[in-house]
Amino acid sequence: MGLKTWYDAQIMPRLVTCACSQGQVLKRRAALIPLATGDVFELGCGGGINQQFYNAGGITSYAGIDPHAGLLDSARAAANAKGWPADIRQGVGESIPFPGRQFDTVVCTFTLCSVEDPKRVLSEMRRILKPGGQALFLEHGRAPDANIAKWQDRIEPIWKPMAGGCHLTRPIGSAFRGAGFEVEPMGQGYLPKAPRVAGWNEWGIARKPGM
Ligand SMILES: C[S@@+](CC[C@H](N)C(=O)[O-])C[C@H]1O[C@@H](n2cnc3c(N)ncnc32)[C@H](O)[C@@H]1O
Questions:
Q1: pTM for the predicted model, two decimal places
Q2: Cβ(206) to ligand 1 under 6 A?
Q3: Is 109 near ligand 1, meaning CB less than 6 Å away?
Q4: From the alpha carbon of 17, which atom of ligand 1 is closest?
Q5: Number of domains in the chain
Q6: What are the tens digits of pLDDT across the range 7-16?
Q7: Domain that holds residue 35
Q8: Which of 17, 79, 81, 194 has the fewest CB atoms in 10 Å of its CB?
Q9: What is the domain-level CATH number for residue 199?
């Protein structure tokens, strides 16, 4: 096994899990994820960290995808621990393996930064949502401060291969708006105790127009 393959399989998932599990991030997940209702789809469900926050009472079905085969067992175990049936598959957001207009809620946390083609993924999220459906998002991305954004541009080429393809410079709310969603922001700001280049977060609800 080459060093890069070993790093990507053993070290990188641990670093990412650690960064995505810090207290302030969990607090934001705890505010957002319980808003999921009806038929729910989670993009980039990873090892299943969001499972603990779902309010199972308001959910009629749960499905999730992630391309990282090594994470799917943990995601399935987390769903089993929750005690609900879950359809968790290997797949990518650029080609979501579910029919159109199937879901009431799409959940997307810290995933748009890592996908290959965010425009395609946002279009797929819109496709699988029922008209009037909601995408719950919590993402990190391009900072509004020019000085921080300048450093994000500089650091991204070094950061990306070390962080599983994660980009620092992607817009968040404006990307959802550009994809035709109506965005209801819930919050935004730098994560305390995180480097600002990687710490700008935006979270909220992006609705697919229609009834
Ligand atoms: C930083 S982790 C976040 C995991 C989880 N969503 C969370 O909130 O902790 C990024 C996730 O995106 C997944 N991912 C990468 N490329 C993807 C793609 N094209 N489509 C869907 N998920 C992708 C990764 O495998 C990883 O699980």
A1: 0.95
A2: no
A3: yes
A4: 9
A5: 1
A6: 777 767 777 6
A7: 3-207
A8: 81
A9: 3.40.50.150
